[in-house]
């Protein structure tokens, strides 16, 4: 039977130049190669005593479509990137101090107690490192590295007090006599990682937001909700709703905010896709969506804001139907542009194909959510 060994270990970082000195000088890895292609870089490091194994740094867009690269960049920026990656070190204290000397902020330092863990977050290469001693051999230690976030940072409080702070990590210990701890400690230590708690927070915040605003649709409040991603970005909403099922209330709100962000970020491309799709579809979707003819960038920005506003102060199901129709027109335009670029610019064609598939999925999910809302079953 042939042998198999690990050859490459990829790590995604948002700043290659800032990351190189951290991995080379702070961690002591050997820089083996620095390859650039199509505006991206792949920087390989060797590890002492592990010939043939390479740790490869790259930016989020390297080897990916623009849409996938943007998605990964947002994940890395909010601390949800790939990882952690675990290394062995024969001197935990020295390694930890060296890493800290490179600007890492320590949240937990090495300890001589069994099962102790050291954690440091580096500001320069956007990485988090943690080291822990083995309970069986205090001289053995490990160092873990994750892209900007292990554990994940808590959501900011700019979105109305819906997300609870998530922090803490329990120590690995040998058997010992139980210790009495305050009851609230367990919420602080473990609730953040509980999928049931994540789901509960997502659903409760979505229902609380929608019911409160729709019961008394103050125009100033609605204006702030429509402009939320423009003022605060998408990360706070992502923390709340991005992991919710597509045909749930929080999942529906998440998709609508993503659709709005796509139009606001690049209204010119959105207008191109919409116009191409409008002339190609043979359904009533352009009429249901309600965009003027022709629809320029400014008109589409106004349209998606109007649709989102309808969630809070109009007929919720109608707003979802309009968003679904809009998505189908955009998907049609993306698919036709992908065909146009297939022979001349295959990478761009692939990006448009990916967008078309994603928009088609959004359209199906939003249509299903509208039907569920009418049945009073969208939860």
Outline of the structure:
The chain has 379 residues and is of the alpha+beta class. The chain has 2 domains: 8-147, 2,3-Dihydroxybiphenyl 1,2-Dioxygenase, domain 1, CATH 3.10.180.10; 196-374, no CATH class. The protein has helices spanning 16-26, 66-77, 92-101, 183-190, 195-215, 219-226, 228-232, 235-241, 249-265, 267-280, 285-289, 297-313, 316-341, 346-374, and strands at 8-12, 30-37, 40-46, 54-58, 85-89, 104-108, 117-122, 127-133, 141-147.
Q: Give the class from helix and strand content and strand pairing.
A: alpha+beta
Our Rg estimate from Cα atoms comes to 24 Å
State the order of secondary-structure elements, H for helix, E for strand: EHEEEHEHEEEEHHHHHHHHHHH
Spatial gap, N to C terminus? 53 Å
Largest sheet: 5 strands, antiparallel
Q: Fraction of residues in helices?
A: 40-55%
Give the overall form: globular
**Major sheet: order of its strands?**
5-9-8-7-6
Mean pLDDT: 75
Number of helices: 14
Number of E-state strands: 9
* Strand-residue proportion: 5-15%
Low-confidence stretches: 112-193
**Total domain modules:** 2
């Amino acid at each position: 039977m042939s042998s198999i060994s690990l050859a490459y270990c990829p790590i995604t970082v948002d700043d290659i130049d800032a990351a190189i000195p951290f991995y080379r000088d702070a961690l002591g890895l050997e820089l083996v190669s620095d390859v650039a292609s199509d505006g991206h870089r792949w920087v390989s490091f060797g590890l002492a005593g592990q010939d043939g194994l390479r740790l490869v740094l790259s930016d989020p867009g390297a080897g990916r479509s623009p849409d996938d690269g943007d998605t990964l960049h947002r994940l890395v920026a909010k601390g949800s990137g790939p990882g952690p990656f675990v290394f062995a070190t024969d001197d935990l204290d020295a390694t930890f101090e060296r890493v800290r000397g490179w600007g890492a902020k320590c949240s937990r330092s090495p300890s001589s107690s069994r099962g102790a863990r050291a954690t440091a977050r580096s500001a320069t290469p956007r990485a988090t490192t943690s080291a822990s001693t083995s309970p069986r051999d205090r001289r053995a230690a490990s160092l873990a590295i994750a892209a900007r976030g292990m554990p994940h940072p808590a959501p900011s409080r700019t979105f109305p007090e819906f997300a609870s702070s998530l922090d803490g990590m329990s120590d690995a210990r040998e058997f010992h006599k139980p210790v009495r701890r305050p009851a609230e400690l367990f919420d602080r230590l473990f609730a953040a990682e509980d999928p049931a708690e994540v789901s509960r927070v997502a659903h409760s915040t979505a229902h609380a937001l929608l019911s409160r605003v729709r019961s008394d649709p103050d125009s100033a409040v609605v204006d702030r909700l429509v402009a939320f991603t423009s003022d605060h970005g998408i990360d706070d909403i992502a923390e709340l709703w991005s992991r919710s099922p597509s045909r749930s209330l929080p999942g529906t709100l998440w998709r609508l905010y993503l659709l709005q962000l796509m139009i606001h970020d690049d209204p010119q491309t959105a207008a191109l896709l919409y116009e191409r799709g409008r002339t190609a579809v043979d359904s009533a979707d352009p009429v249901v969506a309600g965009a003027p003819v022709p629809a320029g960038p400014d008109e589409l920005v106004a349209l998606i804001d109007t649709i989102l506003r309808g969630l809070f102060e109009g007929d919720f199901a109608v707003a979802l139907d309009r968003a679904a129709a809009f998505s189908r027109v955009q998907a049609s335009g993306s698919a036709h542009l992908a065909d146009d670029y297939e022979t001349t610019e295959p990478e761009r064609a692939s990006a448009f194909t990916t967008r078309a598939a994603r928009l088609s999925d959004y359209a199906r999910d939003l249509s299903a959510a509208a039907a569920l809302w009418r049945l009073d079953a969208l939860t």
